[in-house]
TrEMBL record:
GO molecular function (one): oxidoreductase activity
Protein's name in the database: Dihydrofolate reductase
Annotated ranges, domain D-isomer specific 2-hydroxyacid dehydrogenase NAD-binding: 108-277
Annotated Pfam families: 2-Hacid_dh_C
Disulfide bond keyword on record: no
Lineage of the species this protein comes from: Bacteria, Pseudomonadati, Pseudomonadota, Gammaproteobacteria, Pseudomonadales
UniProt keywords, alphabetically: NAD, Oxidoreductase
Organism: Pseudomonas inefficax
Length: 314
């Protein structure tokens, strides 16, 4: 195999790191959103396409352009149109941002327990406020991939009880001191804080509906760092209004961004962030490490890691 040409929508710094690590190959900078290649690339590193209201349901002329491999930047595949998966093998960025997303989810639990940022004082009106501990509280995790497992280890180290659930009928990974929930209803009934870390698929869209929320432990703190489409948002608003759910910390919504005036923007028990938990000021170190390892597999014609299974949905 001759040298490879990698067309990459990563930022300039990340692409330069690829050039440093792969000096015998060519890396071409491609702007995010650009779906035209002017060089005969065999690999395309692709950012999400169907985002912020944009949809590109028709493939660009000539797709798949002779590509031999498409690498997605994100771990989920729901922000990519179907045509991306018709052609070359596609791999995802699954696991590359697990640590920082897990840290963010844990920070949201701390913020709820310690009443941040509302606790900060701006004048001499000091009121002593009893704060909840995390130690001894139960953290539920729905979706026990790399993010869920990283979060579980961190929570166990803090003295939290952790209960988790993966796909129905599938045992969770063996992480010390983590219990497997028997059902989604049990997971919601037993959790003080509950993190959604499951992929969005046909089977999980709208999974967190009125029936599931009806089983929530009163005052539940629901955290979503996965995909907004997992939740029936009107059902969540009703559960917040009734007090059944005490707080919702949402890094994701459906759609993104929400339209102006949406009730989730204004509800006093909703805390929104702009789908930022996976973005690190350190850039893409784990993603680049995984890509380079996979690149060597590709050059050796060995099976690629993190191959996408569209039937499964990730």
């Amino acid at each position: 195999m001759s040298h490879s040409i990698i067309a990459s929508q990563l930022d300039a710094q990340a692409n330069q790191q690829l050039r440093t690590h792969l000096p015998d190959h060519e890396v071409i900078d491609i702007a995010a959103g650009q779906l035209v290649l002017e060089a005969p690339a065999d690999i395309f590193i692709l950012r999400p396409i169907n985002v912020r209201g944009q949809r590109v349901d028709t493939p660009p002329p000539g797709w798949p352009w002779g590509l031999k491999w498409v690498q997605l930047v994100s771990s989920g595949i729901d922000f990519y149109p179907d045509w991306v998966f018709h052609g070359a093998p596609v791999t995802s960025g699954k696991g590359a941002n697990a640590e920082q997303v897990a840290e963010f989810a844990l920070a949201l639990a701390f913020a709820a327990a310690k009443q941040l940022p509302g606790l900060w004082v701006k004048d001499a009106d000091w009121r002593l406020t009893p704060l909840a501990p995390l130690r001894g509280r139960t953290l539920g995790i729905l979706g026990f991939g790399s993010i869920g497992q990283s979060l579980a280890r961190k929570a166990v180290a803090l003295g939290m009880r952790v209960t988790a659930m993966s796909r129905p009928g599938q045992a969770i990974a063996d992480v010390p001191a983590v219990e497997q929930a028997a059902s989604l209803q049990q997971l919601f009934a037993n959790s003080d804080h509950l993190v959604l870390a499951a992929p969005l698929t046909a089977a999980t869209r709208g999974l967190i509906d009125r029936q599931v929320l009806a089983h929530a432990r009163p005052g539940l703190h629901l955290i979503n760092i996965a995909r907004g489409g997992l939740i029936d948002q009107q059902a969540l608003l009703d559960a917040l209004d009734s007090g059944l759910v005490g707080r919702a910390s949402l890094d994701v919504t459906d759609p993104e961004p929400l339209p102006a005036g949406h009730p989730l923007y204004h509800h006093p028990r909703v805390f929104l962030s702009p789908h930022t938990s996976a973005i690190s000021e350190d850039g893409y170190p784990a993603f680049l490490d995984a890509f380079i390892a996979n690149f060597h597999r590709y050059r050796e014609q060995a099976p690629l890691a993190n191959l996408v299974d569209t039937a499964r949905g990730y």
